[in-house]
């Protein structure tokens, strides 16, 4: 070990390899270490190593109505749906879309419902027509659609109706009309079975009925009316006379 002398003062001697650390130097080192520790602490606090929130997505939802439980008539179908997950953003609109073409969107027909679980009653449909349905939900990220289902409204073919025919204010009667699936019709009066039995034809244009009462004399007696939910009503043309009629459907057997 070597010593260095500065002048003749022996107190100036110090070790050339490891000199003594003065108190002021120690304080500076401790302050530096404290600053470094604080920086590391706040750096760790500002970086959350825990799970980060997922980015929002469009909602997920489902159409719950199936062929086995669908509630439908000639002109209405009920569709049930549920918004299963809002995707992390509030849902601002939900409901049902439908069309006569597959893949309906909000550009087609739609309803707006107020709750996440809903049933839409789709009205003003045409009889014996296939419609495609999806439910939808919208949030800030966009609009999502459910699985698709298709249902066909009820057909007039194969049904029997009780017609109340009003010839004038003093004359009216009841007659049963069977609308066959092949477009033919059979009229009979329950008060005199077989007496007024008449074969005719029928057709629907949308929900507008044209019933030719007697196919053996086409166009002689014509019934015109509108089909709704289990009821029909309209006018009839007899030679040189016009009257009114209404009808209710007999329950299917």
CATH class of the largest domain: Mainly Beta
First-to-last CA distance: 120 Å
- Profile the largest sheet: 8 strands, antiparallel, barrel
CATH architectural arrangement of the largest domain: Sandwich
Listing every helix as H and every strand as E from the N terminus to the C terminus, the arrangement reads HEEEEEEEEEEEEEEEEE
Shape verdict: rod-shaped
Strand percentage: 35-45%
In angstroms, what is the radius of gyration?
43 Å
CATH superfamily of the largest domain: Immunoglobulins
Count of DSSP strands: 17
In the sheet with the most strands, the strands line up as 10-11-12-13-14-15-16-17
* Helical amount: under 10%
Helical/strand content category:
mainly beta
Which residues sit in consecutive blocks of at least 5 with pLDDT less than 50?
1-7, 10-18
Entry summary:
The protein has about 250 residues and is mainly beta. The chain folds into 2 domains: about 60-150, Immunoglobulins (Immunoglobulin-like, Sandwich); about 160-250, Lipocalin (Beta Barrel), CATH 2.40.128. It is built from 1 helix and 17 strands.
């Amino acid at each position: 070990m070597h010593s260095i002398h500065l002048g003749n003062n022996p107190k100036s001697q110090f070790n050339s390899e490891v000199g003594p650390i003065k108190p002021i130097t120690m304080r500076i080192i401790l302050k530096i270490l404290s600053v470094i520790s604080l920086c590391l602490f706040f750096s760790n606090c500002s970086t959350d190593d825990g799970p980060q929130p997922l980015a929002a997505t469009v909602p997920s939802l489902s159409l719950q109505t199936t062929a086995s439980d669908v509630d439908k008539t000639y002109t209405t179908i009920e569709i049930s749906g549920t918004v299963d997950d809002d995707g992390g953003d509030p849902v601002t609109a939900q409901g049902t879309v439908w069309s006569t073409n597959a893949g309906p969107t909000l550009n087609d027909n739609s309803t707006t419902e107020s709750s996440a679980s809903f049933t839409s009653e789709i009205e003003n449909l045409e009889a014996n027509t296939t419609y495609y349905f999806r439910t939808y939900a919208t949030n800030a990220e966009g609009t999502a659609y459910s699985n698709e289902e298709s249902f066909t409204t009820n057909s007039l073919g194969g049904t029997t109706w009780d017609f109340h025919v009003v010839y004038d204010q003093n004359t009216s009667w009841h007659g049963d009309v069977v609308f066959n699936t092949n477009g033919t019709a059979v009229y009979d009066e329950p008060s005199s079975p077989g007496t007024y039995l008449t074969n005719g034809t029928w057709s629907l244009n949308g929900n507008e009925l044209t019933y030719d009462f007697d196919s053996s004399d086409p166009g002689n007696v014509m019934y015109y009316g509108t089909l709704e939910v289990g009821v029909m009503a309209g006018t009839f043309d007899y030679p040189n006379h016009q009257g009114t009629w209404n009808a209710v459907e007999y329950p299917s057997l």
